[in-house]
Amino acid sequence: MRLQALFLLALALSAPAAAQSPASTRDSGDAAHLFAYWPKKGMEKRFDEGYRTHLQWHRGQRDPLVWYAWYVYDGERAGLFVDGSFGAPFAAFDHRVDPAGDGADGDRNVTPYADTAFRASYRVRRELSTGFPLEQWRPSKRVQVFHYTLHAGTRARFERALSAAHANLSKQTDAPAYTWYEKVVGGIAPEYMLMVARDGWKSYDAHSAALDELVGPDRLQDLAAAVDEVRVETWLYREDLSLIPES
Q: What is the residue range of the signal peptide feature (predicted)?
């Protein structure tokens, strides 16, 4: 699939500015959409510049959706660029701000410098989470991201373990925000994503985010039976490549 098509479907998808003010989209829904690209070798700087220019197009159109940007810092996908929109209803993506104009601008400024990696959509699980920085437009400087792939038929057991972890975290007043997302479409399922807000490495001294420690002994068997694979990465937030609508 050409990157141009993704920009038509991804960056252009937003509620009409005239019908929905920026303030009304903040934390008004549970959708989380992620889009990832590999900047072409030797073109990383040009990709950043082109993407920054493309965001100006969205700003000029008064796009009411928030768009965050990260670079994956470690793990097997180090160097991957990820952008995402959080906190709006899924229905907001049934409306587009000038799709033709968006696609043309993306084709000029971004498409030549990157290859598509993936796109996926998630639903935030509020009852399992302790905070919602991205939905509330308060991104941290970095985020520790866990990807949990489950065995078929084990969602209930996994979520029982997460409920126990939530109860234990609720007693820790100094813990960073833990936000859980369940994959809706876009790859292997069942899969859950945990995003732990981090401002620096210092926060790892007090909170490792190891789920087997958080669930407690009563739910450790549920966790072990449900999880097939865990991958963990650090994502570094790029404020200069993000768009937070003016409130």
A: 1-19
Cα(101)–Cα(98) distance, integer angstroms: 5
Structurally, the chain folds into a number of domains equal to 2
CB-based contacts of 14, cutoff 8 Å, min separation 6: 63, 64, 65, 85, 88, 92, 93, 95, 96, 97
What is the rounded CA–CA span in Å between residue 89 and residue 3? 24
CA-closest candidate to residue 65, choices 96, 110, 101:
96
Q: For Cα atoms 36, 20, 121, give the angle at the middle one, nearest 5 degrees.
A: 25
Kindly report the backbone phi and psi dihedral angles of residue 100, in degrees, each rounded to the nearest multiple of 5, phi listed first: -65, -45
Instruction: Identify whether 238 is part of a domain.
Output: no
**pLDDT tens readout for residues 191-230:** 999 999 999 999 999 888 889 999 999 999 999 999 999 9
pLDDT per residue as tens digits for the range 182-196: 999 999 999 999 999
